[in-house]
UniProtKB/TrEMBL annotation:
Source taxonomy: Bacteria, Bacillati, Actinomycetota, Actinomycetes, Glycomycetales
Pfam families tied to this protein: Glyco_hydro_43
Protein name in the entry: Glycoside hydrolase
Keyword Repeat carried by entry: no
Record keywords: Glycosidase, Hydrolase
Protein family: Belongs to the glycosyl hydrolase 43 family.
InterPro entries: Glyco_hydro_43, Glyco_hydro_beta-prop_sf, Glycosyl_Hydrlase_43
Matches recorded under CDD domains: GH43_Bt1873-like (cd08981)
Organism this protein belongs to: Glycomyces endophyticus
Length: 339
């Protein structure tokens, strides 16, 4: 795929959810991945990419990954939360597929009344590979998900431990657990299968500020605790930091969760994936979330996330480390605001 020559778009004009940015020094372009939309020129379930030389001016999106039912008979819907990571000389795409016609068990009767108001179905993060950031990405194993199919493994991300071993860190959804979790499976070096037992990093209810914000009359022990969008980083002080998103002031409705989406984070001071993990107050509120960190070409640490949850657009924040603490320097409205 050729590099773009025109950059007519601005972030307020670009529909996107669950943004993920790769700053590619070789091409001099930022690659912003999101779920494929018709604006890419090729309809279908998959991933598309916007490209920019400066985080302000963006080229029209192009598809980099498309999946059809014949390609992945176990799930050909969704393609949520794409991430692209460098591993062993190639680029690897992680994205979440689902199949609304493949039901999974729901929480026990009585937890929220009978029946449970939201239907559960198969949902798994897959891995696809390409030699170029612009794809085309091909699934490593179209016949089956990488992680156990009975788990709802949403928003998978790649984490490499101190021994150089790969892990998939993911959200095990509240739909399956009620108290959602952030968990991890070790992977093979080919990233195509599990290579050991899972580790639970933390639960949604571990963030004490969530229960502080629950509506009156909602029992804390049965409230739905959402866990979304994990991404891990090593802080300069040596701690391991996990970005994640959830809802505060949440309540369960016939259509799912209703509340305020927030970008939050947790810290493992030991630097170990197993923790123990300490929950921090949210970084960004106001129906914002599913963020990730990247380093801009000028060396600035940046956070990209989407806001609002419905009709989402990309928002950019300049960030800074203070030891193991992550702080917001400023909201970059010069990059994500109107023309």
């Amino acid at each position: 795929m050729s590099e773009p020559t025109a950059f007519p778009l601005r972030l307020p004009e670009m529909p996107l959810h669950d943004p993920f940015v790769v700053a590619d020094a070789e091409s001099g372009l930022y690659h912003l991945y999101t779920s494929n939309l018709d604006s890419s020129g090729t309809p279908g379930v998959g991933t598309m990419v916007y490209r920019s030389p400066n985080l302000r001016d963006w080229a029209e999106p192009v598809p980099v990954f498309l999946v059809a039912e014949e390609d992945a008979p176990w799930a050909a819907q969704g393609a949520w939360a794409p991430e692209v990571h460098r591993w062993n000389g190639r680029w690897y795409l992680f994205t979440t597929l689902h199949d609304a016609d493949a039901p999974l068990p729901v929480p026990r009767p009585g937890e929220y009344g009978t029946p449970f108001p939201v239907a559960n179905h198969r949902r798994s993060t897959i891995v696809a590979a390409a030699d170029d950031l612009a794809g085309p990405f091909r699934m490593l194993d179209p016949a089956a998900p990488v992680l156990p199919a009975e788990l709802m493994t949403l928003d998978g991300t790649l984490y490499t431990d101190d021994a150089g071993k790969p892990w998939m860190v993911y959200a095990n959804e509240w739909l399956q657990r009620i108290d959602g979790t952030i968990e991890a499976f070790p992977l093979t070096d080919a990233l195509d299968a599990v290579a050991g037992d899972p580790v639970v990093l933390f639960r949604g209810s571990d963030a004490s500020w969530i229960t502080r914000e629950l509506p009156a009359g909602v029992p804390h022990q049965i409230a739905p605790y959402v866990t979304d969008g994990p991404q891990l980083h090593r802080a300069p002080g040596g701690a391991l930091v996990c970005l994640w998103s959830t809802y505060e002031k949440n309540r369960l409705t016939d259509g799912g969760i209703d509340g305020d989406y927030v970008q939050t984070w947790a810290v493992s001071p030991s630097g170990r994936l197993e923790g123990p993990w300490e929950q921090r107050e949210p970084l960004v509120r106001g129906d914002s979330g599913h963020g990730m960190l990247f380093t801009a070409f000028d060396g600035a640490l940046m956070l990209v996330l989407h806001r609002p949850f419905t009709g989402a657009r990309g928002k950019l924040y300049e960030m800074a480390w203070d030891g193991d603490d992550l702080t917001i320097v400023r909201h970059r409205t010069d990059l994500d605001g109107d023309r």
